[in-house]
Input
Amino acid sequence: MPIRPVRNKDATGLISLIERCFSEYPGVVVEPDGIDADLRAYATALEQSGGEGFVLEQDGQIVGLVSGVLLSGARYQLKRIYLDASLRGSGMGAKMLRLIEGRARTCGASSIELWSDTRFERAHRFYVREGYAKTGATRELGDLSESVEYHFTKTL
Output
């Protein structure tokens, strides 16, 4: 399956992918007119923040997304990673994660971090398997989903 850079015209596909992923968690919703407004022109939003993103396509449908951005110093943040349920366990999630970790190294980052909703337990197991550690920090987003997120980090 080809992985390619995200484009602004991917908005509908990105929102659909994330809606499918969120549908597994009662009360979790995508807010394309709120907290997730960057998805409407995601390539531009990432470019403006110095980040980049990639999508995985299958039969013309976006089935995976990974993106990240260099933060201050040598820190890099995994912004988003989503994979369609039909591909989980296939190794594609790890492949997408390694892609963005490689981009982080290219930017000179020595660590990568991410925030993940406390309800996304399967994702947390994936992050731990991939060498990430929960730091103990949390944050509330104040969104419609009433999200509280855990912070994870990994030394590159």
Summary: The chain has one domain: 3-155. The beta strands are 3-5, 51-58, 61-70, 75-83, 111-117, 133-140, 148-155.
